[in-house]
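Lab meeting tomorrow. Please check the following:
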Amino acid sequence: MTVRSQRYMVVVASAIALTLPLTAQQPAQDREHPRRHHHYELVDMGSTFGGPRSYFNPGSGNDFNPFASVLNSRGRVAGFAEMSAADPFPNFVFWNGLVTHAFRANSGGVLTDLGALPGGGSSAPLWTSKNGLIAGVSENGRTDPLYAGLPEVRAVLWENGKITDLGTLPEGGYESVANAVNSSGQVVGAALNTVPDPNSMALGTFWLWGVPYGYQTRAFIWERGAMQDLGTLRGGTDAQAILINERGQVLGYSYTNTSSAASTFCASDSSLPNFPLATGSFLWERGKGMVDLGSLGGTCTLANDLNNQGQVVGFATVSDDAFQRAFFWEHGSIHDLGGSLGGSNTGAFVVNDTGQAVGFADLPGETSFHATLWKSVGNMADLGTLGKDSCSYATGINAVGQVVGASFSCDAASPTFTDFLWEDGSMVDLNALIPPGSGLHLGQAYTINDRGEIAGSANDSSDNDHAFLLIPCDENHPDIEGCDYSLVDMSTNSTAGVDHFTNPVSAFPGTNSQIRHRQPRNR
């Protein structure tokens, strides 16, 4: 397994001044001067529609961009939850054999079932815009004539609770996905045509259940009722669009030839994506077309995030594809973000609108890695880990520099992931900041907005997934019912609110009667 493969498995399930690591674990100043943190109210999406599990999308497109926009700046989230009904396509189910429906919810706990296309069973949202538009996928009740028994899945847009089928490209095809939408209603994603392609970028996508669907993948933009093929980078046959910002700039991937094999960083044997050909990333703008972001010398450049300033971060392999490096792209130029924690590999996942990026960097030996923050090119900081954990990675950063991510033990056979919040030089276990007795372990924080609200995934005592939203009990959220506005002193209360799953089956008998956090209200 490659280093890149290992890292993306744990994430989903990617002239320089060097800032050296502060310690092998949590930075020294954090231990000597522990910060007082706000409590958080926990909104548990729980068993929303009758099934045991609920989810936020951990990535768009090929499940590679690990952290999609499931939470907007107004505290609204979009996810999907299992229903009690069995999926009518038992060989092609989104999750665990049950029908799933998309939902939206707000910080007040009001939750709405967004449904699916007429005749369709399951649906899932992949993105929510600042003004509440939601992009995603839905089955339409028909089967794909190009693949026996495969449900047709269509790109969809939800606006004010109404679902719109975005269709497929005029050239034909039966499958499409909407990966992102901006506040203007411009939607981007990928659509499959009917041109046979053994190296299709659709291989391994969750929305096609990982089947070997051998037809070309094309990047699209949809607006005002029409879907447009964005083309590919020179020499390529397949592309997909993964993000669009408020300026209408589109970020995506494209093959750059039809024969050269990609590095193992792009064509992984055990994690997504599975891009078997040399792959680049592009930025597309109306009137300017598609621009190749370039490379750091290798065959694989995979962008992860695009901000509203047109800045892009991700990772790219170096010459001979020996290892990967985090990159920062702006105004036509790609730069290694720089820095090292003793290893060679780095990767950037997210960039905020001030140009600060977060991700990971390997330690010596390339078997463990820490969450990292780049305030600028060449200015990297080690964010450390929680307790005795040996690994961490950062998944989100907001405008004020608060960072979220996960910490865990790299060498454990079955590691327990724990959500962290990093602010003002201090990393804290988010489980210590929520009310005790929740019955949940917060393990995967996906994103944090500029209001300090956090969306992620937790597990209950039976290991069922629960989508959650955390609301800080601070001056920006006054008079929230149930909020504890006192501060937590981590020097004396380091395990406050933490649920320890020493016996996952029996640790929480009668949990429902003990839950103190708010449950969402269906509408």
User: Anything to note?
Assistant: Residues 1-33, 60-66, 492-523 have pLDDT under 50 and may be disordered. The radius of gyration is 22 Å. The longest helix spans residues 3-11. The chain is about 5% helix and 45% strand.
